[in-house]
Design brief:
Layout lengths: L2 H48 L5 H11 L9 E9 L2 E7 L22 E4 L5 E8 L6 E8 H52 L12 H35 L3 E6 L4 E4 L1 H7 L3 H4 L11 H13 L3 E7 L2 E10 L10 E8 L1 H36 L6 H33 L6 E4 H18 L3 E6 L3 E4 L1 H17 L6 E7 L4 E6 L34 H12 L2 E7 L3 E7 L1
Parallel strand pairs: 12-14
Antiparallel strand pairs: 1-2, 1-5, 3-4, 4-5, 6-7, 6-10, 8-9, 9-10, 11-13, 14-15, 15-17, 16-17
Helix pairs in contact: 1-3, 3-4, 8-9, 9-12, 10-11, 11-12
Length: about 575
């Protein structure tokens, strides 16, 4: 309890009692005044009815007899006549008091019907109320009562009420002082305990009840604790910054399954904010039965465990490491969970395996043909010069095919590793025309119509890459086209796009996602076409686009044709 609050509480209490007392006094005073006024008005009305100004003697005597009393505290009724403006006479009086009428203000016209309080001739205050007689206006009927009787109750209430309220306040102040002293003792004990925790040595406070001294001690201890807390917060922020800078997901749980640490990478993996999961059960992460079973087994066995976990199309390696640490929720042990994204590595390993498998297969076929033809020549199976010449031509053709495959493989390796880049401004129109020129004989052989719209557009690139880009796309448009079909090739400077569209056999929707894979040839899905190629052309196109930040998309309707669109 603060000193300021203590004094305000006492003041408020005292003020409340004073307000109540004043209110009570005003109510009593108003009540007595109202009763007096009612008594005067009633008596005046009765007296006025009894008195008849046309028969003043008889009616006056009746009024005097009706209200006759020797008690000075009762209603007094007088019949007054006005001889002149300054001369008044009392004809009848219920108490036989013939006071001087020099100061009878209640008889003045402006005071008639109003209560007038004044000192009477008998040296005590009287309250007067007068009116003119209705039958004869020269007579006045007046009633009065001693003021002391009207205010006795209110005065007594004020005196005795004051005594009572002072007694109550004195008791209350004594009680509050005792309560204050009782509340100070545990406060002093807590200050000593906090001082011990903070390492401070506060001044001796055992014999003081002064709030300012205690406040000084609290402030001293508080500053020390604030510094320690601030240091802890800094360390906590450092730890959080380190955890959040780790690219791997990291979280820690207690042995009852509550999450106690959760870094930013884990937030990205599980799509939950730290504040949404901290100190909650790990069940909120919807990990799956296998994951939860591994956690349970690792906590029970207190042994490390590693396993794979798939989530949202990504592959993660999860490492569980038991912890022996007392957490805030009362748990004595727990588990550290490190989650490494292995998607790219696994996909790369799979791609490499597939690549070597496909490359071995693709190279094995022409090599087998070469060996077969040469063995048949060597074994004398081919006896005629014509057969030998045909076998040599086929051998050369297969060798060239092997050369193309190896050349394309080396190209992909160079693009992946960004080797030998000689970047210069390259006019895309020149690369497109070069590809058209080299494929013109093949287009003529298929009787294909070529429509071109080529703007002069330069990009910073290696010229060989741009040449291969157009060569591979245009080669596909020729090889997979129908006889008498058409090819549209355009380069738009305003839209920054390249478009190569053919009227060929198209691509099935289920095959579109795979056309940029290595050694995946479009004709594999259309066995009625015998199209030669290495199976690496579109893979090279994809790598070129990735290297220079181009985007490539495909639109195709099976049986109607395909369009490759590159935005750069």
């Amino acid at each position: 309890m603060s000193q300021k609050r203590y004094f305000w509480e006492i003041f408020s209490f005292c003020f409340l009692w004073v307000a109540l007392f004043v209110t009570f006094f005003l109510i009593i005073l108003n009540t007595t005044t109202s009763n007096t006024s009612k008594q005067l008005n009633t008596s005046l009305e009765v007296a006025e009815r009894i008195f008849d100004g046309n028969e003043p003697n008889s009616s006056g005597a009746k009024v005097e007899e009706y209200f006759k009393s020797s008690d000075a505290d009762t209603i007094r009724v007088s019949i007054i006549t006005k001889e002149s403006d300054d001369d008044y006479s009392i004809l009848f009086d219920s108490q036989n008091l013939m006071e001087s009428t020099e100061k009878a203000k209640e008889i003045d016209n402006e005071n008639l019907g109003k209560e007038v309080t004044r000192n009477s001739s008998y040296n005590y205050n009287m309250i007067y109320l007068a009116c003119k007689d209705k039958e004869n206006p020269s007579f006045y009927v007046r009633v009065s009562i001693k003021e002391s009787s009207a205010t006795a109750v209110a005065r007594n209430s004020l005196i005795y009420g004051s005594i009572c309220i002072v007694a109550i306040m004195a008791f209350y102040i004594y009680y509050k002082i005792r309560q204050y002293q009782k509340s100070i003792k545990p406060l002093k004990d807590q200050i000593q305990r906090l001082a011990y925790i903070s390492g401070e040595e506060p001044k001796d406070i055992a014999g003081t009840d002064d709030l300012s001294s205690l406040t000084d001690s609290i402030n001293t201890v508080s500053k020390t604790l604030d510094k320690k807390i601030s240091d802890l917060e800094v360390e906590k922020e450092k730890t959080k910054m380190i955890l959040d800078s780790i690219s791997q997901g990291f979280l820690a749980i207690s042995d009852v399954g509550n999450i106690v640490l959760f870094n930013k990478a884990a937030s990205d993996i599980f799509k939950y904010h730290e504040e949404d999961v901290l100190h909650k059960s790990i069940e909120v992460l919807t990990l799956g039965d296998a994951f939860k079973l591994n956690i349970k087994n690792s906590i029970v066995s207190k042994k490390d465990k590693t396993f794979d976990y798939e989530r949202d199309g990504r592959i993660y390696q999860v490492n569980l490491m038991p912890l022996n640490y007392p957490w805030l929720d009362g748990s004595q042990t727990g588990l550290a969970i490190l989650i490494l994204d292995q998607t790219e590595e696994r996909n790369l390993a799979k791609t490499k395996n597939d690549f070597f498998s496909n490359a071995s297969h693709e190279l094995k076929s022409p090599l087998t043909s070469i060996l077969g033809y040469q063995q048949m020549i060597d074994n004398g199976i081919f006896t005629t010069e014509e057969d030998k010449e045909d076998a040599v031509k086929k051998t050369i053709k297969e060798a060239e095919r092997m050369k193309d495959i190896l050349s394309d493989m080396l190209t992909i390796n160079r693009l992946e590793n960004k080797h030998n880049q000689n970047l210069t401004p390259v006019n895309l129109k020149d690369s497109a025309l070069l590809a058209i020129e080299s494929l013109t004989p093949l287009m003529n052989q298929h009787d294909l119509k070529l429509n071109i719209s080529l703007d002069d557009v330069s990009v910073i690139a290696e010229k060989l890459d741009m040449d291969k880009l157009f060569q591979n796309l245009l080669s596909n448009a020729v090889k997979y086209n129908h006889k008498h079909g058409s090819i549209n090739i355009s380069i738009s400077k305003s839209n920054r796009t390249i478009s190569i569209k053919d009227t060929g056999i198209g691509i099935k929707q289920e095959n579109l996602a795979r056309i940029f894979e290595r050694f995946y040839r479009v004709d594999n899905s259309r066995s009625d076409n015998n199209v030669e190629g290495t199976g690496l052309g579109l893979a090279i196109v994809k790598h070129i686009c990735q290297l220079y930040g181009f985007s490539i998309s495909v639109k195709s309707v099976y049986g109607e044709g395909s369009e490759f669109i590159i935005k750069f």
